[in-house]
Amino acid sequence: MTERGCDYVAAHLGRYARTLEFLGDVPATEILELGAAPPYPFSKDLIRRYPAARLTAAQHSSAELEKPQEGLPRIQIDGRSIRALHFNAENERWPIRDGNYDLVVCMEVLEHLCLDPCFLFREAHRVLLPGGHFLITTPNLSCMESIDRLLKGESPYRFGVYSRYGVYGRHNREFVPSELEVLGGSSGFQQVRLDAFDVYPMTQRPILAEQALDRTGAGRSLRGQNIFWLGRKVEAEKRPYPESLFDHDPSSHCARISVLRVRPEQNGFAIKLRLSNEGWCTWIPEGESRIRAGIQLLDRDANLADLDYYRIALPDAVIAGQSAVAEGLIPWPDAKRAGFCKIDLVMEGAFWFAQRAGHLTQTRILAIPAKPPHGSDHLEPE
Questions:
Q1: Three-state DSSP class for 215?
Q2: Closest CA to 16 of 169, 139, 199
Q3: Of 57, 88, 287, 367, which is the most exposed, with the fewest CB atoms less than 10 Å away?
Q4: Torsion angle, CA of 181/183/185/190, rounded to 10 degrees?
């Protein structure tokens, strides 16, 4: 372990101990730890706490960080071979099947997110078994020390400096306890426990904060340095994104697009799609706000060549949680200007789904098939 790693572990030992205590008697046989990182101090604590459980260590990966070597899906922790995953927890669908874990642990990750913490909560909900637990720890922006710093004209952030490790190296947004309650409640979790504890040594007593809180009657409850939140997955319908945290709701219109068949014909290539409504708004096939599948043309370098090349109508309205099969015959584009087509959904006159929330709708890109001289050939999508 490097000297820097030793210093980090030593500084956070109190937080690790408090986290294990906060878990209480929560059972676990399959555990996912988000944000696991060398030298894996809390991973080792989880292994000791749950010796019979299987642990998966999920580490961050992004365009700013070097991708892990292929063919190395496991890491060694205290002599045990542990499954390892690499993904961005706030904008990539986690490479995990539904209902795979009974405990998801997310320590000191939430404050590093810059796009969509609600997505993280909802992916945790998806990969948990019914009744499974989700544990979050994160710095408390309304702790005594932060209030004291603010009253002195200083930044209340615990770690708001710009980092040489890129956008995810700093605290992009710190939270107050009530916001975790809101995030969990809107994502299908029942709150089990919420608390805030001091887990680091204080350099000085926050006298200004004490005086201000006592004078205003705001109280000293939930003023510890770190927030600890534990939620239990319930079979509840997820609600819209909380308005107190988002100025829009990307989850209202999101989709999963599957290409079932591509078949070249003389007048174009026929395509058959399955369009799954993974948002909470009904897709209306007619009227000013109608939703259709949109075909965009890309050139041979995958740059946009034609945003509105073709539309495929929905056969009927599609309510949340259901799917529809749509088919269309796409006219042959100019072979000199187009090499690929991109499939997305569009609310006419308003937005493309991927532009509104690209991390919630996965578009499909297909190579444009060769035009047949006679008849038609059957091509399956890659």
A1: helix
A2: 199
A3: 287
A4: -70
Angle at the Cα of 93 (from 140 to 81), degrees rounded to 5? 80
Q: Is it true that the peptide bond before 39 is cis, omega within 30 degrees of 0?
A: yes
For residue 356, CA distances in Å to 104, 129, 252, 291 come to 28, 30, 10, 14
CB 215 within 8 A of CB 178: no
Which pLDDT tens digit goes with each residue over 335-348?
888 899 999 999 99
Q: Which residue type does 177 have?
A: P
Tell which residue, 13, 109, 132, 24, has the closest CA to residue 58. 109
As given in the structure block, the two tokens for residue 323 are 């799917």
Relative to beta strand 30-34, strand 101-107 is: parallel
pTM for the full predicted model: 0.80
Question: pLDDT, tens digit, for every residue of 285-311?
Answer: 999 889 999 999 999 999 999 999 999
Assign 75 a pLDDT band (cuts: 50, 70, 90): confident
| Interval 195-216 mean pLDDT | 94
How high is the pLDDT of residue 368?
93
Q: 1-40 in b/e burial notation, b at 16+ Cβ within 10 A?
A: eeeeeeeeeeebebbbebbeebbeebebebbbbbbbeeeb
Q: Maximum Cα–Cα distance for the chain, whole Å? A: 85
Q: What share of the chain is helix, strand, coil (3-state, %, to 5)?
A: 20, 35, 45
Res 4: pLDDT: 61
pLDDT recorded at residue 117 = 96
- Residues with Cβ within 8 Å of 317's Cβ and at least 6 positions away in sequence, in order, are 282, 283, 284, 285
Unique residue bearing structure tokens 């089990």: 192
